[in-house]
Write a structure and sequence with these properties.
With about 240 residues, the chain is an all-alpha fold. It has one domain: Tetracycline Repressor, domain 2 (Orthogonal Bundle). Helices cover about 60% and strands about 0% of the residues. It is built from eleven helices and no strands. The N terminus is likely disordered.
Length: about 240
Amino acid sequence: MGVLMEGRENEAGGSRLSRTAIVQAAVAYIDSHSAQGLTMRGLGQELGVEAMALYRYVTGREDLLEAVVAELLDGVTDDLDSQLTDSWQGYLQTLAHAIRRIALDHPSVFPLVATRHPAAPWLRPPLRSLKVVEDFLTALSSRGMTDQQVVEVYRAFSSFLLGNLLLEAAQRGAQTSPVEEPLDEGSAQIPNTDGQLDLSRNPVITRFQPLLSEDHSAEEFEIALETLLDRLELDLSQ
């Protein structure tokens, strides 16, 4: 009798399953248990089904974690207040606060944005979604910046957001180390395959790809450090 009831419960739970429902449940699970604590078995228990039922909708934990990141960033640029984004300064301020809201609402989930494999090695967290980057590049290009200036702003802005928001997430108890893939958690689907990346719907990213692919890490570090020292000198002299 107990086996029969369990089967019925799993069947009922399965009827409510969808990829969207699983991903949203995973976000809630990570909010409560951390990304490191997420397992397909544990998530299945939360949803009232066996772990195997989840594999009809996600191929494994890697696929699920990628979907969680996409869920976090979905709609970020759609919800920006158009009255506040007339200037490039307003656009950056509004986008920064939108990304920060994600970090504050989901501090345990946000580190995934920083530690998951990007869709391409030249995309930077936390602005790592093709949709978000396409909007970012388009917005700044349409506000008078040259291509080189747009890419420099993208790099500086990404570094600023990542450093500050990861620190805020950590202060709220988030674990910021990368999540390892257990051997028994299904097959992995890791993007980061630049040659296979479909950019047919992202013409602006396609145009910027050569500039985005350049590595100026050492120069960026020195500029950021000098800017910090100049600001500290100004504050201390007042």
